Every structure is written in structure tokens, then in C-alpha cells.
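Task: fold both queries, return C-alpha cells.
Query 1:
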Amino acid sequence: MARYLITLDSEVHADNTSAQAAITAAGASVVKSYTFSLTFEVEATEEQLASITGVVESTAKNTVTSVAVQVFNQTHLTHLASASYAPATVYEPLNTGAGGDVYLVDTGLYADHEQFAGRSVNNLYSNFGSDFSDTVGHGTAVGSVIIGNAQGVSKDATLHNVKLFNSAVGDITIGEIIDALDAVLVHHNANNPSKAKVVCLPWVTTQNNFLDNKIAELNASNLVVVAAAGNNGSNVNNYSPAGVNSIITVGAYDADYNVTAFTNVPWTDPTTSYYTNYGASLDIFALGVDISCADITASDAYTTASGTSMASGIVAGAAIQWINNYPAKTSAEIKDVILQEGHRKGMHRLVFDENLPFSSADVYTSIVTTSLVGQVSISNLPSGRVLNVQLGQTITKDLELNLANATDLAVISFAPTPPWMTVDLTTGILTVDTSSIDPSLVPGIYLFGIKGTVEGKVMVEEYSVGLYNISDSELGTATQYYYDDETESYDEVVSYQVAPNFSPFASQKN
């Protein structure tokens, strides 16, 4: 007999009781019931496994996969300040992560480092018994850019230390990874699951469907999963978790916004060509070169690091701020805000060298942004989806335009509203009337933009409305469109154009 991880079909089994009955009826035994939906560790023969009713996926628990944290060489602080890299004292985020939670699944943490003094750290789970320490340095480095006293993007958040690895590169079983991720889900469900939290996964392993499906389930459970794209120079979809479409996968750029390239070995020869993982699953870019971070050699030791793992730590910290800004939004909505708010900035600033094996068309050209104290805007609503509307409905939505201070408000000509949408610019009310819309347009996601001038600055917010037939779940794979009012047709789009939200730092995916 052998140990397997299996997931059963929810359309066949109504609950865990039914699922476990099917397992025992086949002669197998349940070793562990996971928090993941209808997921179990079982002991069975191959014949018993094959006879369990309703199994939709399975893998041997001890299946070994090669894994690598995104190794870096032996300062993001100044780069967090402004595009001109002014002193970091000008970086004044609207939120610093207070009350937020981030699960860092990595090599542990050197908690005695001065960057973590007074910070909130919870040792949640270790693959090594009671050992939560970091002998590799990777988890400490990434953790310091998330919650570090001087280096952390969201220094007042709570970091939940999930130690999964004890080396930078090596082998691990799928079962060990699933056990760690299940511990994250258990903790999240027990601690206000209606509030979104962040999971940072700064590593890659060979693509595995079972693992990818569990990571997608984490993301669907109101957890904003942020993963490093990896430094392998090959398609991101060949890797887990980076290739999971629903999560945020992060690439890296340098101080000049050049899309960078790294390998899974230490940076030793800067003349060598290195490439960030690429593919349709790359969502957002963040600074990933010469990041100042905590070092494990002493409590006051520092180093600089480069890699998509460092970029993913910055994005994870920023995600906590966006959750603080919009605490009622789900994990999917938070992702939408992060990507869309950073798209116009990324579209104009990111540089794709002609020698790279991919172009800006292959990725989502967004860089991570945050809201600053005193930041002005034409609207209190961030760019992104403002409504999901069922075919046949008529719904209104207040776009919360800054009517007191914004002038020259207008619907932008290259992103107009379609005929079944209207915006009253004197009140800021959007009306969506789908009572007579062509059914062939549903499901679909339709974009439009509003511009205005505040304090002498022209600003744009770009919004979208999703149309569905029966359930808004249809929008997960729906096509996105702009309306062409000259030809009265709908043009399919790959990228959004959205508002420039001043960014103290920058970051892109699926």
C-alpha cells in the first residue's frame, strides 16, 4: 500500500462524510482530512485508489519535485521613495499594514534581526518540527522587505512564518508543500476569513496540477496569493505556483525600469544574459535589483539582493496596503485593483530590451503602486471592476467622482462607454441598462475611462463592468472589450489602460 493525496468531486459527494465513506468502501483508509475541499491523504493500493468513486485528481504523497527559492547575490529603500529615487523619508504610505496579515512560505526567519524588533511575527508552521529559524537567509531577506522596521513596505502587518525549506535549492515532496499550505488555510479560516489576507510564495517548483489546484483554492478562499515568476529564463507556465492564472505572479525590473533577468544561481557574472520567467501568466513587475534587506549573519547585518523573490515580497507588502485601503474587497478584487492601478504607469515606464525573448505583448505591463498620504484623485473608487450585472438588469453605481475639486471631467474618447452605459458627470452616477442588449455580448467585461484635472494634474480612472447570464463566475474567463463608437463595434483587448496612481515604488502576470 502507498500514501496518496486525492481530491473528490463535489458534484458526486455533498460533504466530507460522503467522501470518506467512498474511500473506505473502496478498501482504502483515510490518514488525514485536509481543509482544502474534499481533499484527503489516504492509504491504498493502486486498485483501491482506482475504485474510489468521484476522484478528480490524485498524486502520490511522496512525489518528489525540485524546488528553488529565487537565489540572489551577496537599495530598495531609496527606490521606494519616488521615481527619482529621492530619500526614503518622502515615502509616506496611506497605510502601513496595521491589522493586515501575510503568510510567508519560505526558509524561515531570523527573528532576532533588528528589522523585526517590535514587529508582529507569528511562527505558524514548520516542516522541521519546532525549528522556525532561517539558516539560508532567503526568508529573512524577503520578510524584511515586507514588515521590516526600516525596509518593510507594510511594517505594521503581522507576518506568519511558514518554514517549508531548509535550503535554497533541493527536492521536496508534494505532500510537504500541501501540508504547509493547508496550515495557512486553517489559520485563515479561523481568523476572520471574510477579510482578505496575503500569501507570499517566493519560490518555484516544476509544474504540478495537484499543487496548482490547491494554490488556486487558497486564492479563491479570500487569500491574495503573490508568487515569484522565477529566474529560469523559460516559460512561467512550466512552473508552480507561478503559472497559476488566478494569483499574482511577479517579475522584476531594475532602477531604470528595465525588465530584468535572473537565473536560479547566485549572481556572479553581470555580463551574462539572464531572463525573468515569461508568459501569459506574468501579471506585475516590481523592483528586483540591489534590494537592501536583512542578513542572517548578525542582528544588525545587511546585504543587497536581486531576484523575482524580492520583487514578490514588495508586491506582497503593497497588497496588504490595498487591503487596508479597501477592507471589504475580496482577494480577486484586490488583485484587480493592484494590476489596473499600476498598468498605465507600467505601460509607459517599463522597458523591454529588444534582446529579451519576449515582448510587452506577452505580459501584463503593470508596476505595483500604493496610495500615499494626501494623494489626490478624480475619484474615491480605484480603477477596476465597479459592477457585475446580470443580463436583463438595470443597475446604477456612484463612481464617487471628486466633484468638488475635479474640473474638465469627461469620458475619454479612446475608451468610451458602450450605448447601454451612461455616466452623469454632474453626479458621478453610472447607469447600466442591459434590458435590450445583444445576448452575444454576454458574458463579457467592458471597459471605459473617466478623466479630469485636480490641482493642475490630468488624471484618469479606468473602470470595467462585467456582464453575465446566470452567475458572475462566468466572468472568470470572459473576454474584455473596448467599445468603438466610430464603427459601433466592440474591440477585444488584452491590456487595460488605467489611472496613474503615484507610486513610491514599482512592480506585473497571469
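Query 1 returned. Query 2:
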Amino acid sequence: MYPRAFDYMAASSLDQASQALSETPGAKLLSGGMSLLPMMKLRILSPSMVVDLGKVPGLDAVGVEEDSLVIGALVRHRRIAADDAIAQHAHALRQAAAGLGDTQVRNRGTLCGSLAHADPVADEPAAVLALGGILEARSLRGIRRIPAEAFFIDAFTANLSGDEIVQAVRIPLSGRGEGSSYQKLGRQGSHSYPVVASAAWLRIEEGLVTQARVALTGLSTRPILAPGVAETLLGTDASSSAIGAAVQKSTDGIVVLEDQYGSIAYKRHIAELLTTRALHEAARLAR
């Protein structure tokens, strides 16, 4: 099926793109197009204008600013899976990018586009959430920094105004004693949407867990933190027994939704299994 007719603009700057969004009701941004274009072809979305960010300079960089790793709006999944700085400071995000979609999606799709799309079963949002990421939303009014835990509102609904553009994602630099991991069960293999996935981040100091975050996807209408796991791990040595006790709280406070890929009980079981794997790897990397 072909999309309905639409206007097209190749923006030369973020301000120009933001102005077009503010002045054109129903306009949509195009970065990688791996989600937008299929939805347009199916006529799930019919934007009045497509604003292409592809020619905006400086958005395809990965760099370090102050205490953060900064990933620009046009950085592709393939770059995230291969970049040395991301491997060092955001191991869970590298794993999520390496195992998502297919070759075409990884070559064309972008991290910021995936986050803004807010698909409830996407891979990278859970990793960014566990890593304590902050999203930079830019408009003509300025830049708004949004913690990942406040960004994902509901299925395909993000904390963005209609004229805001996610220009970058900031991930805190990983220091000594920190480790992260992303583990998933794919719907039809490793390179597919997850049935359930778990991302874990730990800080271990003098042999004890001082900070922890676990994020789950595939259970609800958005990626969500599992606070019960983190709270139970604090002050422990992240041993097998400590992790075993913590993962029993993986879905506490989370409304797990049943779908064609698994019952509620099955998804809870898989969440505990994957969280166990993610925590063990994060703890190994932190030591």
C-alpha cells in the first residue's frame, strides 16, 4: 500500500525543523524512517508533512561531554553496536543495538528515533532506562533535559511536545565498579522484538552493591523500572543467592499484560530468568 500524499522538507538545522513542526499540524520527523515509513504505507499514520533530519549537520556523532556520553539524533543502531566508547560506558545499550531488528533496520534506524517512537517492546529504551539516560528535547523555546524514567508515558507516547526534537541522549560515564547488561527472549529468534527483555546496571563498591537499576520491556505498555529488585540488592554482595532473592521481585508493582506471545505467568517467569542473567553479567563486569 502507498502512503497518502504529504509535503516533504529536508531541514538544514534543528531550529528549522522545529519551526516546521510548530507551524504544520500533523507534521512528523524522519530520521531513520524504520518505524515512520511502514506506518505511513499502512496508513496508520498520514502526516501532512515529513520533516527530514538527514541533512542537519552534527547529529551523527558520539562524544563525551563533562560526565556523560552523548549520542546524537542520527547515530544509527549499527554504530551503537560497534562504538568503543559505548561498549565501555553503556554495555547494555551496545547489546540491545546489536540484537535488534535486521541488517536494514540496524543500518538505517536511529537510537533517538526509537526512543521518541516509544514502542513498548523496543530493545534500546529499556537499556537507556537502566543506564540512567537523559534525553535532550530541543525546540525553539530551548533545550529540555528529560530523565528516561519520565520520558516513556504509554505505548507510542513519549513526554514530548509536538515541536520538540530529541537531539541527543546522554548516558552517565561508567566508572570503576560499574557494569550493565541487556538480556532478551526474542519472539522468533535473537534478532526480533522481545517477548520480554531485562536491562540491569550495578555499582559495586568494596564488594557491596551501592546502586542498582533494572528495567523491563515486553511486560507493560512501556519500558519500566523494577524498583523491588534494586532495593533488595542494595547492600548485598551480588552473589547468586542475593540475586536469586532480588529477582523474585522483578514484576512487583508492574501490571503484566498477556498477549499472543505469552501468558502473564509465563512473562513473569521469563522476566525473572532474564533479570537473573542480566544481573550476573552486570555484577561480573562491575567487579
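Both queries returned. Flag for query 2: The chain has three domains: 7-52, 62-172, 179-286.
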